[in-house]
Amino acid sequence: MALRTSSSFLSSTSSCSSLCFSFNPLLFSTQRRFTVSLSRSRRFFAMSAAAAENDGIFTSPEVAKSFDFSNEERIYKWWESQGYFKPNIDKGGDPFVVPMPPPNVTGSLHMGHAMFVTLEDIMIRYNRMKGRPTLWLPGTDHAGIATQLVVERMLAAEGVKRADLGRDEFTKRVWEWKQKYGGTITNQIKRLGASCDWTRERFTLDEQLSRAVVEAFIRLHEKGLIYQGSYMVNWSPNLQTAVSDLEVEYSEEPGTLYYIKYRVAGGSKSDYLTIATTRPETLFGDTAVAVNPQDERYAKFIGKQAIVPLTFGRHVPILSDKYVDKDFGTGVLKISPGHDHNDYLLARKLGLPILNVMNKDGTLNEVAGLYAGLDRFEARKKLWSDLEETGLAVKKEAHTSRVPRSQRGGEIIEPLVSKQWFVSMEPLAERALEAVSKGELTIMPERFEKIYNHWLSNIKDWCISRQLWWGHRIPVWYVSGKDCEEEYIVARSHREALSKAQEKYGKNVEIYQDPDVLDTWFSSSLWPFSTLGWPDESAEDFKRFYPTSVLETGHDILFFWVARMVMMGIEFTGTVPFSNVYLHGLIRDSQGRKMSKTLGNVIDPLDTIAEYGTDALRFTLALGTAGQDLNLSMERLTSNKAFTNKLWNAGKFILRNLPHQDDTLAWEALLAHKFDKVESVVKLPLPECWVVSKLHVLVDEVTASYEKLFFGDVGREIYDFFWADFADWYIEVSKARLYHSGDHSVASVSQAALIYIFGSILKLLHPFMPFVTEELWQALPSRQEALIVSAWPPTSLPRDIDSIKKFENLQALTRAIRNVRAEYAVEPAKLISASIVANPDVIQYISGEREVLALLSRLDLGNVNFAEAPPGDANQSVHVVASEGLEAYLPLSDMVDISAEVQRLSKRLVKMQAEYDGLMARLGSSSFVEKAPEDIVRGVREKAAEAEEKLTLTKNRLNFLKSKVLIAN
Hints:
- Among the domains are: 237-416, Alpha-Beta Complex (Isoleucyl-tRNA Synthetase, domain 2), CATH 3.90.740; 476-513, no CATH class; 633-799, Orthogonal Bundle (Isoleucyl-tRNA Synthetase, Domain 1); 806-896; 899-966, Helix Hairpins, CATH 1.10.287.
- 46% of the residues lie in helices and 16% in strands.
- It contains 34 helices and 29 strands.
- Strand 10 and strand 11 (315-320) form a beta hairpin.
């Protein structure tokens, strides 16, 4: 029944007049079309031959030892060229839409990308196969800070500074860089199998998206939700821009705690307060000193004035506030509201002035007096030296503190009060909270709802301006000669702004645009609807695909991106921008550590793909639990690469055991078997009925898990069925049908079952492992179209629960016999006799599969007996109980030479006893137990327990064998 090689196939098909078909036409260079009237079987094979023109794209398991990872790119390009990634609007139905979290245009693929691409592609491929018009919207983010930093570094290597070029020329250079390198991340995402509609790919600085950003700013400003003011922000001295909280990373770092005397005005030399600070250079910005009102040590100083050191006698009030921690440092707090987030909030509560001592580049300004112009860290050193000279330095000590660093440049971020543009968030947050409470938006896992609600309930206004040149320019113009804070114009263009200015101030007015750009997250928050055509809500894509179905992203940006998209979507479209939010965790190394270059534990996805294949990587990533961090190990990848090979080998086995292509009668018989009706399933032989029933149960379970987005469950359910049920059991069962039955009808039903089940497995697994499943699918004669667009298996198909239980009894019996063979070290090739004892009903179905039982258990088919009572030589047999009412008796003489085995075990028992006695002697020694390290003693105890267990088992077996020798004698 082996399939012919490609050369014989070509010769046979060229002369074939009664039936012309192909098993894997993509292997052969042929363009034949079918022009004759075909029977049902001929139509079946005509469908297979339809893909013959795709020669060279796929490789059949028949000719390849294993799946070749290099084929992945060819398969991907073929999918894309066929238009499979585009939504099929003609199918009708409710669209399924996923907006891709746009990666930075500066990005290079990392495991975080691999995770979101895998999960989103699973959703997309599943819903595409379910027949829904499916759209995955791809794009990239202009990444204001990151991109500007990359280009500035490139220019620095040329000896050029940004300021030397000017804004227009610098922006031009950034666009040139983007054109040359900006597609890197997109091409890398494609290597992961992302089935996005790349014809709809968008960039956040595209004309249409830029128009949406301007429109959003204007509408928010018109409603009074955007305002300008001076407030505390995270400041990057190197980039000289405000940065968002998300772009600040905190790390525990060794530092110094400085203790400094603040003398009390009007007091004696002994009247002073000692403060402890990690940033003494900010003392020039002190506007008060505070103590806890319950701290009796300082009660006498409350209401007096303290003299700020090295400020030529500047006085600040000594206040009391319960915010001050009595146990930190000395319990005295210097309040520098211009340079500390907590001090800023405290100063606003207490009505204190704000004093800024720092320039935008991190140097001290004129407020610092003699220290003006010094870098903040240089000033710290000089300041401490001067404090020591003047006797105001008490001491300094090592201290570990939480240091804020720029995610992009790595420099220490400076809290700084700066004039910026802000969005009032409370009105927007209220509606976003309602969306979840009313069930309009579902967040998965559910526990993140509490975090979402907490953040939105305590939301702060959003600083949306950045002091950069790359990005969306703020659509605000100022009138020359007028107060910038009072007189400004918000407009969609320079022309519109000038017209407004002329209308108000006359024809000769001059205007200039705000130099700042908008925070990248501002444009990203408009992503789902602006990508689909908003603010033109009549756009076809907007009408058809908005709101989107699922937003999938990392839980670490729930607040910074997801919540803001919800708020903006409701504000501008009146609708929540997506129905579901699915959050994944971080990818960590095998030890649970965050991946970092410093630790040297970064795993590169592209290197992983080259070694293990995309499918193995995707399957590994998808098996995690939603919202939980995933520890990625090479062992998991190796295991799932083996899973890929197991699939391939299963396909190889099936293809090699199909009827010959010109055996018309065999194919007619094979195609006559159906598995979608109750009457057809219950008529199947027991193994086929079992495996088809198990498959139908699996389809229901897997489909339900896909719908709930329980992808870890999906992967485990398919893996267990394929490996444990199909590969380990049914394929082995089928060998009895194909090689030993001699009955073509029995072989035919097995071949039909193999094709049906394997094809269904490929469909269920395709969203996880798209490449190997498509390659295998193309080799099956039953395929009608590409797997990527094939129909999902129907649910609620018939299953026979009774047959499942019956076959499980057969499995239990097989395992029991295998265990005995292993226990007595019976050679694999040796066939043994067996007496199967059970009630008549069980005997009927077990005996009906005697060939299967014999093959799987390595029994001598001619000496397998079935009875309702034990055999006469039962006392010379090993008795095993498979399940209630099902037993087996295996003659010892078939398996071992009893006398020789008794001698062997007796010698082994002596050696084992000696080893055990030695271990117990060590444990009986008080000097060993008391003096040896605890882990050594524990190890000896564990070895002793294991030795005792083996000793008992060997004694029991020896006694059993001795009893058989006595009986025989």
